[in-house]
Specification:
Number of helices: 10
Structural class: alpha+beta
Radius of gyration: 24 Å
Distance between the termini: 87 Å
Bound molecules: zinc ion
Largest sheet: 20 strands, mixed
Number of domains: 3
CATH class of the largest domain: Alpha Beta
Shape: globular
Helix content: 25-40%
Number of strands: 24
Length: 433
């Protein structure tokens, strides 16, 4: 009798476990076989429609990622050997790092500065809800209050932008020059990560970018807040990938020959002897020494997910930072399509350019607002937070010559993919005064 009960109990547990596995893994398998190959095909078809617009604005366009963490942060192990190959693969020109500080005096001088295999890196810091790149010899004393830190950075020529715009901030502090209008980490907070984790387990390596894009939601409240802030002062919008390459399980050899396991947020899980029963898990070490990697997020996927395009004279910290502060910047979800070549500007009656995104233009001298895109999509012109003009769905150019008023004008562009219009690109506004 007892034997029979135990037998049935095992049977039921077995069936329930199998059902659970089917529920957890079926969506990922379906995506791998059907959905993601279709997405890949659509994106490839869209890329064929690319038309390089003539450069009308006398500045070059540089692709960059901002708000990125390396091993100098407590929650990342990323080194230059992980970061640079990823950036190379994604066509990234510059990386503005934001490592969490260590102790009361900032670690910036220890961070990466300069060109690495042609990619420009500038060190910065994320703490207390802001991202900062002091750009010079400024030493941040974390014992002083936030406003004093911000004032000190700005008066020494540095950059300070609000990070994590979903969190409460003292939004009226005048020193902050910008804010995140998209942060991948922010975007992950509004849904359960579990189904996506299983999707990545099935699709990682080949379709990780699509699996992680399931987190995407338009950041409508943040954009509305940005518009309202811009009605009273200039606040530059930028995108943050907040990449740490730390949602992973990895292992590497210690000098004493034991294996160290590292888990989520770069925490040490365990250190153990290598025995016959675990040796088969390990392969030859990569450049950072990892002999085992089960990756959820990677720098490579992150850098291609959302990208800042800065319009600047040269690929140098001075030119990039100057133009960032001016708002000569737009953001795009690059895995859907590369936005290099996109331009948004205002012209006068003689068709001369009076200013570009981020600039202020006098109402009397402004006749048209124009935008050109390398990929066909739908342009939306947003005036003081309200959509005032929408183009057809597959346009390369946008021209607005209706009555232009004072206030901010910015462009949002969407691409027709997956049977719907998907947000792709957001510009900084032109300020009409
Ligand atoms: Zn961060």
């Amino acid at each position: 009798m007892i034997k029979r009960i135990i037998k049935y109990l095992f049977l039921i547990i077995g069936i329930l476990l199998s059902l659970l596995l089917i529920i957890l893994f079926t969506p990922g398998i379906w995506h791998r076989l059907v959905t993601y190959p279709r997405y890949e095909k659509e994106v490839a078809e869209l890329a064929i429609l690319r038309r390089e617009p003539a450069n009308q604005i006398n500045l070059n366009s540089y692709r960059g990622v901002m708000h990125v963490h390396s091993y100098l942060s407590h929650d990342s192990r990323g080194t230059i050997d992980d970061i640079i190959p990823a950036a190379k693969k994604d066509g990234i020109d510059f990386i503005f790092l934001t490592d969490h500080p260590n102790g009361d005096i900032d670690t910036l001088p220890k961070g990466y500065h300069g060109y690495f295999d042609g990619i420009l890196i500038e060190s910065g810091t994320e703490k207390q809800g802001f991202c900062t790149w002091p750009l010079g010899p400024t030493v941040i004393d974390w014992k002083s209050d936030k406003d004093s830190i911000a004032k000190n950075i700005v008066s020494n020529g540095g950059i300070i932008f609000y990070a994590h715009s979903e969190e409460p901030h003292n939004w009226i502090t005048p020193y902050y020059q910008g804010m995140e209008i998209y942060n991948f980490h922010t975007d992950t907070k509004d849904q359960s990560p579990l189904p996506i984790l299983f999707d990545v387990l099935v699709n990682g390596n080949k379709y990780r970018h699509w699996a992680l894009r399931q987190f995407f939601n338009p950041q409508t409240p943040i954009l509305a807040h940005w518009d309202s802030l811009n009605s009273s002062r200039k606040i530059v919008g930028f995108s943050a990938i907040d990449a740490h390459e730390n949602q992973n399980i990895r292992a590497r050899y210690l000098p004493d020959g034991r294996i160290q396991w590292v888990g989520n947020n770069a925490h040490n899980i365990d250190t153990m002897e290598v025995k016959f029963w675990n040796k088969w898990l390990f392969s030859a070490p990569d450049k950072s020494g990892w002999v085992f990697k089960l990756l959820i997020d990677t720098y490579e996927t992150g850098f291609n997910y959302v990208t800042n395009y800065v319009l600047a004279d040269t690929l140098s910290t001075s030119s990039l930072s100057k133009n960032m502060k001016q708002g000569h910047l737009f953001i795009a979800f690059k895995s859907l399509g590369d936005a290099k070549g996109f331009q948004f500007f205002g012209t006068n009656a003689k068709d001369s350019i009076m200013g570009i995104l981020g600039d202020s233009i006098k109402l009397e001298s402004l006749k048209n607002l124009k935008a050109v895109s390398p990929l066909p999509g739908q342009f939306k012109l947003i005036h003081n937070g309200k959509t005032v003009s929408t183009s057809a769905e597959k346009d390369y150019e946008f021209n607005f010559s209706n009555k232009i008023e004072k206030g901010t004008y910015r462009i949002e562009m969407s691409l027709r993919l997956q049977g719907k219009l998907i947000p792709w690109l957001y510009t900084n506004p032109i300020y009409v005064y």
